[in-house]
Amino acid sequence: xxxxxxxxxxxxxxxxxxxxxxxxxxxxxxxxxxxxxxxxxxxxxxxxxxxxxxxxxxxxxxxxxxxxxxxxxxxxxxxxxxxxxxxxxxxxxxxxxxxxxxxxxxxxxxxxxxxxxxxxxxxxxxxxxxxxxxxxxxxxxxxxxxxxxxxxxxxxxxxxxxxxxxxxxxxxxxxxxxxxxxxxxxxxxxxxxxxxxxxxxxxxxxxxxxxxxxxxxxxxxxxxxxxxxxxxxxxxxxxx
Length: 240
What we know:
The protein is an alpha+beta fold. It has helices spanning 55-62, 77-92, 97-103, 165-172, 175-183, 187-205, 209-213; strands at residues 8-12, 18-23, 28-35, 41-49, 104-105, 113-114, 119-126, 129-136, 151-156, 226-231, 234-239. It has a 5-stranded antiparallel beta sheet with strand order 2-1-10-11-9, covered by helices on one side. Strands 3-4-8-7 form a 4-stranded antiparallel beta sheet, covered by helices on one side. Strands 5-6 form a two-stranded antiparallel sheet. Helix 4 runs antiparallel to helix 5 (175-183), helix 4 packs parallel to helix 6 and helix 5 runs antiparallel to helix 6. The protein has one domain. A hairpin with a 2-residue loop joins strand 7 (119-126) and strand 8.
């Protein structure tokens, strides 16, 4: 999932410039990014590999009564970590935990959000890895500021997937995307790269995934702003 030698994942812009190196071996790692765009969107990005978090730490995080869509007696480690990551990120932006709890909206079947805070966020997890991206809407002074949204998605352990990427692409992706995957030297990785783009685009646009399947996400006009998440046997993307 990550490079075992240095325990890091990296974030790149569209031109393959490395924007951040994050060590995920010590709990939650955080960085502030300025995504390449005309507006210079400010994004706070957090990542945590829950496999490296002790049970005692998880128990402490769970006691915080974190906002969660999936409440129950036994929340899994990724949901516990996601809640703590959201608390920490919002505290970094100047919001208290009680404000987060009060304004968090996480109804089943809908994208979680804040009701009265100028922050949009997106969460993704795959196996033990969890990522969180927050967009500060107040950084956009235009009329579009109130509508600024973000989407993030990751996929890990890609080489162990049993699915046929070419057949899956023929079923779900556009013709252009199918051709890119078929021509790739590593079709499974290319398939997952496009899949994460569709997932992140779906989250940003707040639409069903079935609609995202119909969009050619390799068309740069679809991306207002984009960064790629990379690591050992994984891929991901941030869209704003």
